[in-house]
């Protein structure tokens, strides 16, 4: 569903890629690189309990598995691949550092077992690379020159670069940018997923959702969205934006080309008599005064008209008001019904 939604959103934005690839296209290659790391003594299979592993990374304590032989690690990794009972208790960790000040460099996990069938490869694999290991490999072999990554990954950039030298891969230059955050808005897909799973919203295109499809249903134009994003630029500063500005830009885009129509709330309509035609007739007026190409609409002209309750409440005797497509009128008398 996530994959399909990304492709749909790109289509909505008018973005057409030159090629489409999946990390799963390279699972075998990534697996071979994992074996190479083990052979070079740069990775080890750790069967430590999860809490013990977390404590070790937090306090810079070496794992009891860190000094295992290459042969033992290869045998253990094979058990992970086969998802044996022991293999499922293990993970493969890159041998980067024990006590680096950047905790992202403290022997991160790069492979785990997962028995859930993959949506593209099915049950062929039972062990999968984690994002931080797969990403630099795929970027390098697919010819990426500049990886655009949001600043939340900044602590993990040295980790990304480490794999290039460790595996003799063509390096990729990283360019950081700050994520766009909106005030009082959840943007995390994981957190938004909860609302979908709980049935609080009908889907990812709910107009209350801060998704491309959501705000499009709410009335956002792609042109305004594109202008707004380009206006922010690839800033590295943390940005907390306000929705008012993007909707104001949307109005500027819509205003010159949106046909005008009039509607009143039925409840509380106020009948008004004006010095108008003795008999009602149907007239034709432009849908937009400054855009004749949008065509015309029919309007009934009569001495009896209705105005909304809110407008009527503000009227005062002697006040001059403008009636669109009619002209100006002077209020001569107001009768209020208690």
UniProtKB/TrEMBL annotation:
GO annotation, cellular component aspect: cytosol; methionyl glutamyl tRNA synthetase complex
For this protein, the record's InterPro entries field holds: Gln/Glu-tRNA_Ligase, Glu/Gln-tRNA-synth_Ib_cat-dom, Glu/Gln-tRNA-synth_Ib_codon-bd, Ribosomal_bL25/Gln-tRNA_synth, Rossmann-like_a/b/a_fold
Which segments constitute the Glutamyl/glutaminyl-tRNA synthetase class Ib catalytic domain?
A: 1-255
Keywords in UniProt for this one? Answer: Aminoacyl-tRNA synthetase, ATP-binding, Cytoplasm, Ligase, Nucleotide-binding, Protein biosynthesis
Glutamyl/glutaminyl-tRNA synthetase class Ib anti-codon binding domain location: 258-335
Q: Name one GO biological process term.
A: glutamyl-tRNA aminoacylation
The record's section on Pfam families has:
tRNA-synt_1c, tRNA-synt_1c_C
Record-listed E.C. numbers: 6.1.1.17
* Superkingdom of origin: Eukaryota
Q: Name one GO molecular function term.
A: ATP binding
Name the enzyme group at the top EC level.
ligase
Family under the similarity heading: Belongs to the class-I aminoacyl-tRNA synthetase family.
Recorded protein name is Glutamate--tRNA ligase
